[in-house]
Amino acid sequence: MGSKKEDFWEELGAICGLWDDPWCIGGDFNAVRFPEERRNAPRLIAEMRRFSEVIRELGLRDFPLAGGPFPWIGGLNSQAASRLDHFLISDQWEDHFSAITQSAIPRLVSGHSPIVLETGGFSSGKNPFCFENMWLKIDGLKDLVRSWWNGYSVEGYNSHCIVEKLKALKKDLKNWNKEVVGNVSFNRAEAFSRLQRWEAKENENSLTPGDVEAKNLALEDYKKWALLEETSWR
Hints:
This protein starts with a helix and ends with a helix. α6 (about 185-205) packs antiparallel against α7 (about 210-234). About 50% of the residues lie in helices and about 15% in strands. By secondary structure, it is α+β, with helices and mostly antiparallel strands. It has a 3-stranded antiparallel beta sheet. Strands 3-7-8 form a 3-stranded mixed beta sheet, with no helix packed on it. A two-stranded antiparallel ribbon has the order 4-5. β4 and β5 (about 80) form a beta hairpin. It is built from 7 helices and 8 strands, in the order αβαβββββαββαααα. It folds into 3 domains: about 1-120, Endonuclease/exonuclease/phosphatase (Deoxyribonuclease I, Chain A); about 135-180, no CATH class; about 185-234, no CATH class. The chain has helices at about 1-15, 45-55, 90-95, 140-150, 160-180, 185-205, 210-234; strands at about 25-30, 60, 65, 70-75, 80, 85-90, 100-105, 115-120.
């Protein structure tokens, strides 16, 4: 393993030497830099020093990680935990962005938490009303829309009736979205916060069966709201 890792460091250095452009590399390096990045690590060892040395030699930076100390948890009863995943950034790359951060988000599938690299915020204007695709993923909406539509009583030409019924449907959809769906981003963030709290507890100790069930419920909530939020962007 040591020989393979050293080969990787050398290959990374060779790639870095091919150009002077800004660059960023991210992934599972299967290495930690400090004892506090591995659960129950007693002291700084040569492998940790070597990783930090490689980062310095390549002129890269490893930004602090938000969202929990151990993005990877595994082993029997989740006893093993480490920070194996990193984004490493050159000074030139950093110069192009105003606020670079990296943070771990809840594990959805594997033992690794996805690491999100953010380079600064952006703003957007208010969108006009439109039918949201995400609404179609909510059980019962189609039947509800059919019930509303059939319940509207409008007299006049067909074109006039359709226009007026669409206006009424728009109003009902806006009220339904406010009362039933709510703020999807807020709901996703709230579920995310609950999941983070369980993962923070798991970073300290193994979870009880009841804790695992509660964490799984939080995970399902997060996945539901994240899917709705993602669909709303399309």
